[in-house]
Amino acid sequence: MRELPLPVALTARLSPVVVLAAVGWALSSGPATPADEHDSAHKTGTSSPSAPSTSAVTKSYDASPAPCGSVSVATIKSLVPGAKTAGKEIRSTDSKLRRTCSWNALKGYDYRWLDVSFEVMESDEAAQQEYKDRLTEKSGGGDVPGLGDAGYSVVNLTTEDKQQTREGVVVSRVSNVLVVVTYNGSDFESKKAPGTDVINKGAIKAAKDAVTALKGSR
Question: Whole-model pTM above 0.90?
Answer without folding.
Answer: no
